[in-house]
Amino acid sequence: MPATELAPASAANPYDRLKALGFTLPPPPAPIANFVTHVQEGTLLYLSGQGPTEPDGRLYSGKVGADVSTEQAYEHARLVGLNLIAVMHEALGDLCRVRRVVKLFGMVNATSDFTDHPAVINGCSDLFNQVFGDRGVHARSAVGFSSLPNQITVEIEAIVSIN
User: Fold this and answer.
1) Best label site of 14, 38, 126, 134, fewest CB within 10 Å?
2) Could you write out the DSSP letters of every residue in 93-137?
3) CATH architecture, range 41-162
4) Where are the domains of the chain?
């Protein structure tokens, strides 16, 4: 399935769509400092920034545009999206409670001349669209930074409307 397509209508819910895409939800990564992974305020769920962390704790690091390609960073952003979904599941108990992904803020650890930040953050956006269908279509920012914590390649935070 091309990255920009929504999950098939036959995949009835986010869990079915994740399975159809070949994903298993990992445990949510633990915070790396003095913060929590999420805060619910009314019908909004605010998700703290997550990085490209594998379930075994391995982080992807490096400078996009130098030692990390746009394609590799896209995959890192996709992993960040999976981690954000894991946090949503932990916070809500059921991904079917996601009414709408409202906004993503994507940060790319990039060289000063790198200009393809949106293509990197598409890794997360495409996954959200595939997993949540129309409810995953969101507003977004994709910006570059000279560094991120632990020199990770990508960090993304989200705001989600819930039932």
Assistant:
1) 134
2) S-GGGEEEEEEEEEEEEB-TT---HHHHHHHHHHHHHHHHGGGG-
3) 2-Layer Sandwich (3.30)
4) 41-162
